[in-house]
Amino acid sequence: MFVACSTLCFANEPLEAALRHIAELEFDKVELAIVEEGQHLRPSEVGEDPEAAYLRLRRGPALIPSALHLDFGPVDWADPVQKKRFDNHCRLAKALSVAVITMTAAPAGTPLEREIARLTALSSTAMREGLVLAILTQREAVTCDPATALKLCQEVPGLSLTLDPSHYVGFKDSEVDHLFPYVQNVHLRDTGKGPDEFQVRIGQGRIEYARIVNLLNRGGYKRSLTVSILDRPDNAFDREVEVRKLRLLLETLL
Asked: Phi and psi dihedrals of 14, rounded to 5?
């Protein structure tokens, strides 16, 4: 296992500044978030010109990409343009020597059969390129409960999970533990119990980092623990301090 930093930690800075910031915090690995509504790389742009995205990333500091995190926003996946764009993201991942692509799941309430069909097609494309497709666990998505996330992994060949335990605060450990064999990426911050405590200072929430690392170790997990303290205006703390603090904490657990 190793520790990486998501570019979402500095999403409101220009991409080049965010990458420098991550390097200055002594990370050597970075998860690249490619978000349509973001200020860094966007799927609509990368999907049309992956070579330009590759060259832009290579001009930055010598960080090793650990994964791609893709958020296309609300798009029609029956549109051949979107398929082409996803194909090009797979090519970018291979050029960057990235093995895992994290995708956002469909919104909560989406018929499960429709999501299974979408993910089956995407996972098949990823596998043909030698990549792992991992679906993100989120409160606002069909993966909002562990049982549904588990069913998706069981129904879609080759599908894995990017586990974000903050979204499962309030569920029993026994409900979440069944997911660990499918985990290929992890997003971490600290989260409290209250509705306004999605991000709190490290140590003030309910995320059990040591337990998560132990469960991953048991399954032979070799991939990233990604610091993902989101760059939000409602943060009541110094985000840079908390990013550094979480890196140091996770490194003591490895």
From this structure: -55, 150
